[in-house]
Amino acid sequence: MMMPTLATAQVSGLEKLIFGPKLPASESAAWADGLFMMITWFSVFFFVVLMGLMFYFMIKYRRREGVPTEPSPHHNTLLEVFWTVVPSSSLLVMFVLGFQGYTQQLVSPSNAMELRIEGNKWNWLATYPNGAKSPEFQPLSKKETQSADGMSSSVTRGKDYPIFYLPENTAVKFRMNSQDVIHSFWIPEFRVKRDVIPNRYTTYGIQTPKLTAADTYIHQDTGQKMIGRDMWVFCAEYCGDEHSRMAATIRIVPQDYFDQKMEEWGVVGLPWEEGEKIYKSMCASCHQINGTKLVGPPWNESSDGSGQYGWGYPASLADGTTVERDPNYYRESILDPNAKIVNGYAPQMQSYQGQLDEDDINNIIAYIQTLSTVEPNPHLDAEGSESESEAGNQAEEAAGSES
Amino acid sequence: MSTLDTHAGHHDEGSYLSGPPGIMAKIWQWATTVDHKKIGVMYLFAVLFMFFVGGTAALLVRYELIDPMRDVITQSVNADGDLVETTTSTGENLRDLFSGLGVAGDLTGTQIYNRAFTLHGAVMVFMFIVPSIPASLGNFFLPVMLGAKDVAFPRLNLLSWYIYLFGSAFGILSILMGGVETGWTFYTPYSTTTDADHWRVVLMVTAAFILGFSSILTGLNFVVTVHKLRAPGMGWFDMPLFIWAIYATSIIQVLATPVIGITLLLLIFERIMNIGIFDPAMGGDPVLYQHFFWFYSHPVVYVMILPAMGIISELLAIHARKHIFGYRAIAFSSLGIAGVSFLVWGHHIFTAMGELAAILFSGLTFLVAIPTAIKVFNWIATLYKGSIVLNTPMCYGLMFLFTFSIGGLTGLPLATLATDLHLHDSYYVVAHFHYVMMGGTVIAFMGGIHHWWPKMFGKMYNEPGALIGMGLVFIGFNVTFFTQFFLGTQGMPRRYANYVDEFQTLHQISTYGSWILGLGFLVHLAVFVHSLIAGEKAPANPWGGLTLEWECESPPIEHNFHHEPIVKHGPYDFETTVPPHWDPKDYPIHPDAGKAAH
Q1: Which of A233, A334, B289, B319 could form a disulfide linkage to B394, CB 3.0–4.6 angstroms apart?
Q2: Of chain B residues 374-403, which have a CB less than 8 A from chain A?
């Protein structure tokens, strides 16, 4: 039997129609596609034979008034045995091949690089062997348009997704667990997914492809064309409100570029920079910093004019009372989110006790302060870091326009 | 199958539809009836109403998916020269729709979408498709086809109906209180932790729990009826295949439904009393719930499809005037499917279970394909040398062969482990089970309704109108769901309110298809209403059927038969028997008939 492999990369037009323009990313993925195509051709054959007979009988034996039904046997043991045995043996072949491909797809060699994957509502978080976490994000399908008179421009975009870098031509093993409900880590281009379950590790392995000159991506910040290959990760098990926005990008890059990133990310930054990383990876699906209201309140001024949600402004709560947004308020909201619910929001958030340590909480609070228009973080200027942090710039501008 | 002395005397009994004068008296008579035909008709209208509710939710789901959700950030310079930035969102179609109606509340676009698809799934599964054929057509025709006056336990039958209403009321209450967003599968720990301060999930789960009892009691009633109330002369292998199918269905309902009852009860215990069974935060096991749930819900897939297969056996034989090919093979494959259905639940959990279990369940799953394939071969062979008329019921029967074959064959890559890892929980699965559930069950149900409509209501329907509806349903169905196979293989996960750009074209085609499909069903609705108001009077046996319901008048009298019928010929002896109420002049019989058989 012909099983197309990645090396040959002979992908038929029909296969492109079925799986889309993106080629399978590993040998085992290509093997699974080959098996799918084999089953498809088997199905097409049976379907054409059955429907061919049906339409032929429909026309040949259509009712003619006054013409009786011709007698024919009511059963035929030989024929019935034949059409039981032939499909049964074909199914046995599919079962065995499916079993074979399944082991190829899930098992990884013992020297594989281990990437820890954590799922929570509604983010993916990857931790590298050196403890680094990816701080890079890119928005879903960003499009910029300029109005005809040049007076305004608009950007159409989806939510930000994390980017997980992986080196090319490497065996990678995902060790996954969930912080809350069941998720499922699906990389369509590797043709494999596995559920991510609370209180238990699940694993699978992939072999990242060798990059070719044709593999390029546009870097999200610089806009440069770089060598590498971006592929989607989707959550495939329904997990609530923002299930459909729980995605990530796997970016396969050359080994030396990957090593450079690891070194860079291994360095601990300033508190608000670390806070921003945590914000993007764990908080941004519910709390926006552009004033949009999502499941949770924004962390700054609301763009719909409904008021200020930022640091230093009073929060009016669902029970009618008002509290000051200060470090204690933020700390409590992280550890015991339902203690104080902002008016107009549902008690949806779960405690991050145990997921965030004291340093993390301090870093997030430091980051929230940089967003404030009333009391921006005083250390920003002192440390002279405004050129690095985008959020710091925003806070500066906002503070400037206030005064 | 002819009766003794059918036509002499005893015309004092009226049709089951004729009631006492006065609207209140009529309502009271229907509300307290123990007549299986009236109960069947009430179920028919109830499940069709639920199909309308679930179908509307489906159209809402497709409407949301016509474009993806995006933020549009516009920067412009205002009159004072300041830079103004505004953020708006696009593609939140349902939120815009419901805000326009003033019922969106604080819900975001994705929250409304999640409620819409949960509503669609829960209503379609628990309130429409599980009771659809057995409770409506089964209730009406099972006793008549057996030659009985009623089911074995008529009062229990009425109780099932009220339990169904009671359970549905809980479901509707939960929807009116704001809806549930867990998906119809109620997977833990999501379903036990979401919506913590409200009772909607508990109400919806309670609804499913109560509806289960309706299924159990109906199933039990049918099993006893088949065993005890067959007409004299009707052995097991003289029964119409529709009865075999309903019998196999009933066995599954009686055996499997208690498991879901217990599971849903455990879920309620966990939510209300905080007993940790499924929630790992309380020491439970989240995947255990999936095993319990599918141990019921997989056999129930066959509760949905077996009665449809029964209808198809009837439709193809009668409208082709041909003895069904391989009667025993079809009858035993119904029982075979029922048996194997209890062993394959694990294929819903391939991505969450251990390797050994996955391999075992994959092997067992392939087993179920064999009896299904045998049935399809037998149906096609039945058409050979028939006398085929392309009326609405037959067209639906042939459409079933087309769509159900696609549904069955596309199940193969899902049973194959290597390909399922990619396709699991993707739109491919959505397309596959809609081809089986809708292309199978709903299409057969539509065929069955058109086939038995003249018998149930004593009125004919407008044939060209029904054929137009059928054509629209066929086109709309395939446009809607065939595209979804490609969405799935290209990487679109199910239950997504939002998606990446490359999927938009396929989603749009699918949404346009759903509108054609909706239009087709509206045409059918118009045809049915027209028939009830102004339909021609139906003859007793419009198609030339040989099963016992065609011996009755249209509509049947209160006790179905004037005399207890005695069975003298098989249900499919079309080649040798002039049908009841037919003149031999109009029903030519081949001179060699009877020689070649067997």
Answers
A1: B319
A2: 374, 376-377, 380-381, 383-390, 398, 401-402
> What letter represents residue B582's amino acid?
W
Taking a contact as any Cβ pair under 8 Å apart, which residues of chain B between 173 and 202 contact chain A? 181, 183, 187, 189-190, 193-194, 196-197
**Residues A190 and A283 grouped into a single domain:** no
- Nearest CA of chain A to the CA of B402: how many Å? 7
What digits encode the pLDDT tens for the residues B137-178?
999 999 999 999 999 999 999 999 999 999 999 988 888 888
Complex ipTM: 0.92
Indicate whether A237 and A131 sit together in one domain: yes
Structural domain range at position A19: 1-58+80-106
Residue of A nearest to B374 (CA): A84
CB contact under 8 A, B74 and A39: no
Which residues from chain A sit within 8 angstroms of residue B390, using beta carbons? 58, 62
Q: Quick one: CA torsion of A25, A29, A30, A36, rounded to 10 degrees? A: -140
Give the CATH number, domain containing residue A281. Answer: 1.10.760.10
Choose from B65, B67, B70 for mutation: most chain A CBs within 10 A: B70
CATH number for position A207 = 2.60.40.420
Q: Based on the domain organization, do A221 and A283 belong to the same domain?
A: no
| Residue A71 belongs to some domain of the structure | no
List, in order of start, the domains of chain B with CATH numbers: 23-68+91-586 (1.20.210.10)
What is chain B's mean pLDDT, rounded?
90
* Residues A14, A99 within the same domain: yes
pLDDT higher than threshold 70 for residue A182: yes
Question: Is A61 in contact with B384 (Cβ distance < 8 A)?
Answer: yes
Mean pLDDT estimate for chain A: 84
**pLDDT tens figures, A191-219:** 999 999 988 889 999 999 999 888 999 98
* Whole-structure pTM value: 0.87
Whether residues A302 and A397 share a domain: the answer is yes
Nearest-Cα residue of chain A relative to residue B406: A47
Look at residue A210 and tell me if it is in a domain. yes
The one-character DSSP state at B73 is E
Per the structure, how many domains does chain A have?
3
CB B465 within 8 A of CB B526: yes
Range among A6-15, A65-74, A224-233, A260-269 rated most confident = A224-233
Last residue of a domain, one of A210, A245, A266: A266
